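Deliverable D5.2: sample structural annotation.
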Amino acid sequence: QVQTVESGGGLVQAGGSLRLSCVASGSIFSRKVMAWFRQAPAKQREWVAGIATGGTTTYADSVKGRFTVSKINAKNTMYLQMNSLKPEDTAVYYCNTISPSLPWGQGTQGTVSS
């Protein structure tokens, strides 16, 4: 089964940027709609952004205009560029299919200080 590994998180000040990466163990990005999710402390995991097999992107209202999702199918890699970060963006970020149908990876922690 395909597995994912997320990386790129860190600690930034409000207004800063982070670029997250998701590497899959198989060529899934050309076959499935993929998505980024996040889980903040004491909150349920929520959908953040999605990218279709053809590259069409969609975003949660809370991140629209600030986050950009992209992918390189040949590298089995997906990215999430996060700009103008806010403290409420602090969460563990995960990638998965839109369903989601893959085992959850370990995620990557993004922390935004005020």
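Annotation notes: The chain has no helices and ten strands. The mean pLDDT is 97.
The annotation will be released with the project's public dataset once the embargo ends.
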